[in-house]
């Protein structure tokens, strides 16, 4: 990215990145202290979230009128409904705010790398300073209260599944590497040291506290994202050898059983949204492989115990119809696999051309290179990728899609 040498057919993708950068920046900054419920610690600087698939059942309480929400939260037993999101969770939106901040930081860092316009780098610096460094707004470096289960007898701590809440830390690491190595005037020594200090403290918590360690041994996507988060924090903290060891550990342990000989992911397939969870874990696997590549390690062709890996997992996933799930969750992994393994018969490019003819204007088309645009640009002479990108962008008013498709990072300096 910092070389500013991009294929000529990526103009639409570049335009989309600039539009996303401006759109997201206008919504910030974000801070962890912005929540209406105080964590059990009494400190708003502690990150807090509620379990997204946890629902109350008040039928046994004998009430004849609707209970006020605080009483529901404390008195009604909660139970898990896998894959069914409880909208009450967004009442405490630290998760949404963190994801939006990570998206804004990522897109603005790319915009700065492409244009060298300083306002983009300034946006990155501001958002990171407010979330992580500035004393009045900074997040405490732990996830003790992430994905708390409400209800009687639940205690005052979160769950190991809550470690997923910072899954987008890879975007932040990539953004910091871009500004740090690009020597942006807005990436000051003070901010750099502040992020290093924060990450060092988080790593200490993340590798010693029992909640986090339960996630470290999870064999499904939770474990995959644990290692991507740990390596991302280590990159920011300049612990290069530590990051290498993290990636080696992932690929030599839980990765080894994540994909069967057919390419199926047996720990994701039984979930209520298998299409989503297959894509979700493929994204984590690819993120770890990209981090490894940046660190001089090559795990792209690493196979598990059944002689299958990332490519086989993607090939199986695209063979399964999405049903009622969001098909676009696989689009960026498809482009990423094609860019890494090649696409000699056009299988991946044709898949995307049929699924989403506008894909050459998607942001991921820039960082998933080399990859074909399926002849769409020449086949549609009246089509401008920039104009089409603008139309597509205008139709989206939230960051939900961006959060899905911009997880896989391309570590570039």
* CATH architecture label: Alpha/alpha barrel
Mean pLDDT: 90
How many alpha or pi helices?
17
In CATH terms, the superfamily is Chondroitin AC/alginate lyase
CATH third-level topology: Glycosyltransferase
Strand order of the largest sheet: 1-4
The number of domains = 1
Shape: globular
* Total DSSP E strands: 4
Distance separating the two termini: 7 Å
Considering DSSP H and I runs of 4 or more, what fraction of the residues is helical?
A: 40-55%
What's the alpha carbon Rg, rounded to whole Å?
A: 21 Å
Strand content: under 5%
Domain Alginate lyase: 34-318
GO molecular function, one term: lyase activity
GO cellular component, one term: periplasmic space
InterPro entries: Alginate_lyase_dom, Chondroitin_lyas
How would you sum up this structure, described in words?
This is Alginate lyase domain-containing protein. One of its GO terms (cellular component) is periplasmic space. Keywords: Lyase, Signal. Residues 34-318 form the Alginate lyase domain. The protein has 413 residues and is mostly helical. It has one domain (10-379): Glycosyltransferase. It is built from 17 helices and four strands. Strands 1-4 form a two-stranded parallel ribbon. The chain has a two-stranded antiparallel sheet with strand order 2-3. Helix 8 (221-236) runs parallel beside helix 10. Residues 397-408 have low confidence and may be disordered.
């Amino acid at each position: 990215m910092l070389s500013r040498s991009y294929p000529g057919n990526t103009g639409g993708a570049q335009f989309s990145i600039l539009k996303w950068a401006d759109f997201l920046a206008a919504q910030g900054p974000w801070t962890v202290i912005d929540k209406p419920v105080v964590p059990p610690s009494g400190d708003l600087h502690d990150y807090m979230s509620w379990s997204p698939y946890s629902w109350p059942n008040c039928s046994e309480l004998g009430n004849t009128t609707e209970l006020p929400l605080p009483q529901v939260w404390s008195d009604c037993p909660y139970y898990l409904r896998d894959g069914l999101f409880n909208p009450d969770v967004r009442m405490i939106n630290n998760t949404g705010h963190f994801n939006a901040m990570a998206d804004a930081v990522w897109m603005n860092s790319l915009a700065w790398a492409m244009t060298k316009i300083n306002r983009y780098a300034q946006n990155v610096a501001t958002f990171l300073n407010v979330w992580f460094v500035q004393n009045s707004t900074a997040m405490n470096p732990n996830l003790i209260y992430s994905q708390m289960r409400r209800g009687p007898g639940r205690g005052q701590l979160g769950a190991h599944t809550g470690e997923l809440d910072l899954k987008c830390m890879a975007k932040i690491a990539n953004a910091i590497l871009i500004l740090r190595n690009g020597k942006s005037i807005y990436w000051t020594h003070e901010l750099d040291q502040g992020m290093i200090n924060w990450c060092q403290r988080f790593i200490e918590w993340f590798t010693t506290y029992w909640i986090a360690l339960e996630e470290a041994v999870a064999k499904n996507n939770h474990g995959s994202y644990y290692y991507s988060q740990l390596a991302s924090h280590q990159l920011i903290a300049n612990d290069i050898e530590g990051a290498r060891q993290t990636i080696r550990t992932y690929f030599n342990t839980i990765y080894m059983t994540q994909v069967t000989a057919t390419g199926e992911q047996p720990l994701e397939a039984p979930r209520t949204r298998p299409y989503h969870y297959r894509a979700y874990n493929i994204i984590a696997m690819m993120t770890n492989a990209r981090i490894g590549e940046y660190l001089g390690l090559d795990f792209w062709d690493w196979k598990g115990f059944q002689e299958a890996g990332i490519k086989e997992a993607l090939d199986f996933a695209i063979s399964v119809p999405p049903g009622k799930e969001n098909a676009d969750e696989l689009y960026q992994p498809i482009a990423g696999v094609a860019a890494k393994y090649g696409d000699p018969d056009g299988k991946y490019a044709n898949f995307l051309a049929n699924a989403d003819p506008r894909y050459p204007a998607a942001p991921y088309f820039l960082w998933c290179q080399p990859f074909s645009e399926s002849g769409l640009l020449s086949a549609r002479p009246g089509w401008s990728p920039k104009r089409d990108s603008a139309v597509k962008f205008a139709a989206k008013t939230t960051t939900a899609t961006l959060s899905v498709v911009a997880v896989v990072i391309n570590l570039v300096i």
